[in-house]
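Researcher: Here's a chain I'd like modeled. Treat it as a single chain, no partners, no ligands.
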Amino acid sequence: MMSFCVLCFIGFYPVTAPAAPSFQASNFHGQYEWNGEKGTRKDVDATFTATGENSWGIKIWFTLDKKTYTYEGFLKGQMGEKLAGEVQNENKSGTYRLAMDYVKDHYEGMHFYLNEDGEEETGLIWLYPNAK
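Model: Modeled as a single isolated chain. Structure tokens:
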């Protein structure tokens, strides 16, 4: 009885995920959705600015009823992974918590209104790096 050994060469090609945004890719464009208007996404823009290791300043702005709103605050976490933080409106009367994951090529997550009783889930947010 004769046995044969057949050897096949299989080429391996590295599969890489899309690159996470770097500090140079600090501008984002995306959409947000309020719980009261599920299914209706509105445009939002954001800028991330490094303030330290795994620490980012964030500025978010959007137009609602012909008025532009700006929120500023901070995010903690590694770029291209989970980011979480808080933003406040211009007159510091409203604070929102953001919790986002990097999924494929963008951030997506939730926003929550912070009040004296805790927090209230207010909707969803999607941010794409260098998109406009």
